[in-house]
Every structure is written in structure tokens, then in C-alpha cells.
Amino acid sequence: MANQATAVAYAALLLAGSKTPLTVENVEKLTKKAGVNVPSQLATQFVRAFEGKDIISLLSVGGGSGSAPAAQPTQAAAKPAEAPKAAEKPKDPEPEEDVDMGGLFD
């Protein structure tokens, strides 16, 4: 099933890249030529999912316009660093109580 879904996805990408309409018939033709037997239900569901959508524009989100915007300085960064507080003395751990587990780990 994974190979079939992958074949349908690649067929849709090929069709979108060649400006060929995304139809069940075109998807089935491409997958047959690739040697993958795809159920028509899978091709139909895929075509319906992307009906009226431009697959290429869905893949090119962000546009690769360059680097991310520079980080804005915050007020915390503008303040001088405070001296670290004196380390507090850790409290003595309380002794553990024996709990009867009903012979679970005997």
C-alpha cells in the first residue's frame, strides 16, 4: 500500500510539473507505466484531495527568499547581568519509608 500511495503521489507531481490535468485516468496511466498496480479508489481519493489546488504552490511554501529575519533585541538582553545568588544549602533528604507491596517483589 505504501508503494502504491507513493506512486500516486509521484504521478501527481509529474502531472503538475508538466501542466497536465490531474485526473484519475492520467494518474492510472502513469502508475501503470511505472509498473505499479494502483486501485482506482486510491487514485480517485488522491485526485479529489487535490482537486482545484495547485500542487506546485503547495510545495513551494516560503519561496526560499533567503535567510530568516534577524532576532530583535529584548529588554532582558539590554540589562547587565546580575550577580548569581549564593547557592542555597540543600536540605537533608527525608528517610524513605518501607511500603508493603503485598509480596510483589519478593
From TrEMBL:
Instruction: Recall the GO molecular function terms of this protein's record.
Output: protein kinase activator activity; ribonucleoprotein complex binding; structural constituent of ribosome
On the tree of life, the source organism's domain of life is: Eukaryota
Q: Which residues cross the membrane?
A: none
| InterPro entries assigned to the protein according to its UniProt record, in alphabetical order | Ribosomal_P1/P2
- Identify the CDD domains for this entry: Ribosomal_P1 (cd05831)
Please give the GO cellular component terms listed in this UniProt entry: cytosolic large ribosomal subunit
Q: Which UniProt keywords are listed?
A: Ribonucleoprotein, Ribosomal protein
Where is there biased composition of kind Low complexity?
67-84
Q: One biological process GO term for this chain? A: translational elongation
Where in this protein does the record put region Disordered?
63-106
Q: Which family does it belong to?
A: Belongs to the eukaryotic ribosomal protein P1/P2 family.
The name this protein goes by in its record: 60S acidic ribosomal protein P2
User: Can you name the source organism?
Assistant: Paramecium primaurelia
